[in-house]
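User: Please predict the structure of the protein below. I'd like the answer in structure-token form so I can feed it into my own downstream comparison script.

Assistant: Understood. Taking the following sequence of 80 residues as input:
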Amino acid sequence: MMPIARSTWVAIAVAAAALIGVVVVVASLWGDIGGSGMSAAGWVAMLLGILATLGLGVGLMALVFISNRRGYDEPGGPRP
């Protein structure tokens, strides 16, 4: 197995620190929101938005993989 380079460890550490920082900021902001509630229609709309976004992401990634496997991503030009 190949050893991991120092720059890779630095990148992992920076990414982890950024993730921790974002989680801390989001958690503090979430606590400041207070007791604002969301209706059932709001929850349904959020769930449908999440599902549509995930479906679109999965569908587009599937198209990328299919396109790559079938050779559509190769450079154009005359074939021999």
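That's the full token string. The two ends are 40 Å apart (CA to CA).
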